[in-house]
Amino acid sequence: MINKSDDDILEMFRDEATKDEAFGLLLKKYQERLYWQIRKIVISHDDTDDVLQNTCVKIWKGLGNFHSQSQLFTWLYRISTNEALSFLKEKQRKHFGSGNGELEELLLASLESDPYFDGDKAQLELQKAIVLLPEKQRLVFNMKYFDEMKYEEISSILQTSVGALKASYHHAVKKIESFLISREV
């Protein structure tokens, strides 16, 4: 683990002499967490790598202007989440044109053909249930259930109220339960 605080890394980044080193430390500290945040949204490992690259470029360009109004971690997650969602919108547009094609179909196909998925049948069914959730519910469920984030953190990342997040999580859990019961997992 990196022994430098976020504030130390930011201070190093603002100094031209240590800017590259600071960015390397930042990536070592957060890259894996950002990878998995993006992966839960776009499903495919290859797509995740592409989105993570774009995310790193945005972080590099914006880090000098970061003024600690939120936690650095929250800011990084917001960028990675927005990049992943933009990627999915573009992917949907490419596959379905300007129509309202089902993004869930693309995500399910990615999940089912993913050579990196090593879960059992129950895990695959859970992932299918999550993919079928509406976007906001899927994001909230993943952050709360898998990342064990507090509602306040999620609220800062998604820029929505805690009450709305609690409702989204509740609805997501009910939909997942219904899906799994219907599949007898």
TrEMBL record:
Keyword Magnesium: no
SUPFAM superfamilies: Sigma2 domain of RNA polymerase sigma factors (SSF88946), Sigma3 and sigma4 domains of RNA polymerase sigma factors (SSF88659)
Descriptive protein name: RNA polymerase sigma factor
Family according to the record: Belongs to the sigma-70 factor family. ECF subfamily.
Record key words, sorted: DNA-binding, Sigma factor, Transcription, Transcription regulation
One biological process term in Gene Ontology: DNA-templated transcription initiation
Domain (RNA polymerase sigma-70 region): residue spans on this chain: 26-93
Molecular function GO terms recorded: DNA binding; sigma factor activity
Domain RNA polymerase sigma factor 70 region 4 type: 124-176
Highest taxon, organism lineage: Bacteria
